[in-house]
Amino acid sequence: MTDVFFSYGLLAAAGFLAGLIDAVVGGGGLIQIPALFSMLPTTVPATVLGTNKLAGIFGTTAAAVNYGRRVKLAWRAALPAAGAAFVFAFFGAYTVTHIPTDAIRKSLPFILLAVAAYTFARKDFGIIHAPRHKGSTELIIAILIGSGIGFYDGLFGPGTGSFLIFLFVRFFGFDFLAASAVSKVVNVATNFAALLWFGYSGHILWQLAILMAICNVAGSLVGTRLAIKHGSGFVRKLFLVVVSVLILKTVYDAFLK
């Protein structure tokens, strides 16, 4: 019984920290998924991922709501991107059952390295909020970003939130705080699409997922407050830290594991 409480306590702590990190820059899965696999070594991967998605979607939704109350959220970019992401996440989930993903796994560290290098080299990247698109151009770019990231999240997934933030800064001219807020709306859509499948197929540990969801929400509220209080400069620095950790993890998964 003591071991059970200890395991649940560690997973609750992981849920809180994952919610905090994910609310600011994405990448909460770096904490939550390894913790679940470590504490549930005999559980099938699909159930681990389904439990993670249910816990995570509550934190992501809480972050989106909190950002919406405190930051002017760019809904004209967020909603079409979220709609496209929801649809294409299904296509990604379907595709992953029919093709190998080794090529994606091995290319991911290099893509993340390029993202980190670009962000680091441009010191003003994401610091100033200067939206550069309106009307049909804004709609088309939002749909393209949502479609691409939605497909990727359904197909593979690591770093989805961080990729979203980078793309909204790079192509829309948002600062990191605004991009983080928009990314949460899109991420809710991709997570919900995946949850429909995991829930339908019975791959969720409900009691554990609800416990971690509560902790994830608590962490996300702390994370959004930190991001709003300290601004885009803080988000940019944490973004670079999380992407750097993602690079190390994806190199290990692709080439050393």
UniProtKB/TrEMBL annotation:
GO terms for cellular component: plasma membrane. It is found in: Cell membrane. InterPro entries: TM_pro_TauE-like (IPR002781), TSUP (IPR052017). It comes from the Bacteria. The chain crosses the membrane at residues 6-31, 43-65, 77-96, 141-169, 176-198, 204-222, 234-252. Pfam families: TauE. It is a multi-pass membrane protein. Keywords: Cell membrane, Membrane, Transmembrane, Transmembrane helix, Transport. Signal peptide: none annotated. Belongs to the 4-toluene sulfonate uptake permease (TSUP) (TC 2.A.102) family. This is Probable membrane transporter protein.
